[in-house]
Write a structure and sequence with these properties.
mainly alpha
Length: 58
Amino acid sequence: MSGLMLVPCAVAFALVGLAWPKLPQRFQRSLVPVGYVVAAPAYLGLAAASGAACRTRS
């Protein structure tokens, strides 16, 4: 299951890598912080959905 958590990151990385050179320079500067703002809640949502914080080792 942990490997599946990396799939959204890999897909986003590929899409941005392909589209980045085609974007105007003025958009590139503002998209970097926007990416972090979008990624943070997305990763928190993935962590909550996986229940990682609720598991304890026995």
